[in-house]
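Researcher: Here's a chain I'd like modeled. Treat it as a single chain, no partners, no ligands.
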Amino acid sequence: MKYTKNVLNILTALEFKGIGKAFIVKNYTPNLSEEEFCKILNVDLDDFIEKKENIQNELERSSKFVDGFLALGDEKFPVSKSNSGGLFESKIYCNRNTSVLKDSEHPIFFAYKGDLKLLDKKNINIAVIGLLEPGDDIVKLEKDIVSEFIKNDFIIVSGLALGCDSVAHQETVRQNNVTIAILPSTIQNVIPKQNVELANDIVFNGGLLLSEYYKEPNSQKEQINRYVERDRLQALFSDMVVLAASYSQEDTKVDKKLDSGSRHALNKALEYGIKRAVMWDDAICGDGRFNLNRELINNRNIQHINQTDRNFKVFTRENASEIAYKFKAYIKDKHKP
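Model: Modeled as a single isolated chain. Structure tokens:
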């Protein structure tokens, strides 16, 4: 069976009005009986059982597309990089009170396909994000810098979107390395459809597909929210979030289609205490596609090539190898017992 009692309990609870992630994080105890959990939820037992059976049927239908489902309280439920607990802690969010995460932003359920151990905190995971329509010059810059990450044994995390996300995943797969794709969709119905083959290649190559969803959204608004939720997960499960290129918030006000979602992931990284970085090349960074990169650099008062900062990095072709090596040493030292 690919799901646990915790999975069924939590997904069923979410079907009741007023029950969300924050309530579950604050109140859930692993492996509760239906009767005990219904008292906490203040819901009718028969109603709970009926909803639970419907969810069980949903999971059965989608189980052939996934390797498993996990929920808060399961032994192997992943713990984010912003949490001080280990990946496979048996307690619910060990040391949760020390986390900067809001209860409403804690993951509480995952469907996955591939190697879940890639989320282990001993690995160095680098999220690479960016706009949906990069030109050839941006693609070449991103590939060159991602290659340096791969040489340093970093695991590339991205969101399987078109553009910069796809470049990061494709380059990693091309070099026979593993990558993690965090989806804004179910695993059985990957979006965008153009990347279904890429998703299959990621798993075939030893990587991981991760999703917070087991059923399709009920509305376009819910789907849009899933993109935002995916962006936060890219930060949560990374040691650093690196922006390849994107438009600024001011650009977005002029044309909403220019917003690639990169700002969401970068803002969450800042909020969660996850390192941030941008890619840069003086020869090609003069147009609007690098406005967000430029804005972040200016806001940090960084002379973009030479000055270093433990909390913010600027990757160029010239310095990517050196910074990656130093960051690798920093993370290894951080995780020493």
